[in-house]
Amino acid sequence: MQRNVDIAIVGAGPFGLSIAAHLRGCGKSMRIFGNPMQIWRRHMPQGMMLKSAGFSSTISDPERSFTLRHYCRQEGIPYHDVGLPVRLDTFSAFGLAFQQRFAPELENVQVAAIEPCDAGFLLQLANGETFTARKVVVAVGIDYFRHLPEVLAHLPPQRLTHSAEHHELDRFKGQRVIVLGAGASAFDLAVLLEDAGASVQLIARRPSVKFNFEEPLARPMLKRIARPMSGVGPGWKQRACTDVWPRLYRYLPDDFRLRTVRDFLGPSVGWFMRERAEAVRQMLGYQIEQAHANDSQVELLLRGSDGERRTVNADHVIAATGYRSDVRRLPFLGAHLVDDLAMIGQTPRLSAHFESSRRGLYFVGPIAATSFGPVMRFAFGAVFTAPRIAKHLAA
């Protein structure tokens, strides 16, 4: 293996794979590390459908020669740009096929440590190998940033898990399970747990559930003008999120950027899940005040929006409570390296080319949302990211 390379990419999801695809043939030496499409293949429940439309559930290559549409046509899988939900296993398989085509040199090994050195950065792999890279792109996605409500933090792992810990759900057959959350991951998980034979109750702080609008395959011109389609859904704000904000977002006030990343396109459920989701037992508008566990069950003390208090019990609690980007939670970055980074909130402040204040260290994906806008929370964000950062890295 090369002991000194120009570029190291840490992460093999849509962002990392897209950047690798755009860097092919650029004349720079490169290595890319990670378990390809891991979050989709290992940390989302089997049987799930993606909330994103077909055309936006893609990975970027320079010629747009191998999109999800191309893959589905090749494999004989039904596909439409909008109006037909994409199966999780289809997207995962597409990602693996993309990797084989555009990043066959991918090394399925974890990066254990990154330290600054005279040559740029010294990287140590989980297998003990060390090498240097002039530039490093951190493209690790969301898995390091799982969020659990503080009120539950003391519960033992046999009674409390995050939704990302569950791909196969058979072990919950016959169990009473509480799912926490009001977004797609919560309702998808609740429905699939019911299918697996669990008795499920969903609890959420929000007083109501938001469902995405179903988008027909053909839309009248007036509707296309009133609600133009974008990679994160229809609407002018959504279109600005994908087409305008990535170029301008860094110039907006910090408080606006942080608030918008947190609140824009908040929890919602796919339109195709409405009938099945509404069949799930729900307690909406309830806060968890206390949580207790013993050898046999979990007990939650809840307070409703009207002040009513209720106690619920279950064998297990699954928190589908999302992710919160925080660069300090990346275990392979040394504390002294992180301490030197200019920050916005808990994330690195980035240049127009995704470079942090530490020269040669780049961050892409959801952790870059505070610098480029909410589209970076979605795989579709790679469409903007990959060509821009690749052009800069190849210069």
Automatic annotation (TrEMBL):
> What keywords tag this UniProt record?
Oxidoreductase
The UniProt record lists the EC number as 1.18.1.2
Protein species of origin: Paraburkholderia solisilvae
Give the Gene Ontology MF terms in alphabetical order.
Answer: ferredoxin-NADP+ reductase activity
| Annotated InterPro entries | FAD/NAD-bd_sf, FAD/NAD-binding_dom
Q: Does the keyword Secreted apply?
A: no
Q: Which residues form the FAD/NAD(P)-binding domain?
A: 6-225
Q: Which Pfam families match?
A: Pyr_redox_2
The protein in question is named Ferredoxin--NADP reductase
The answer to whether the entry has keyword Isomerase is no
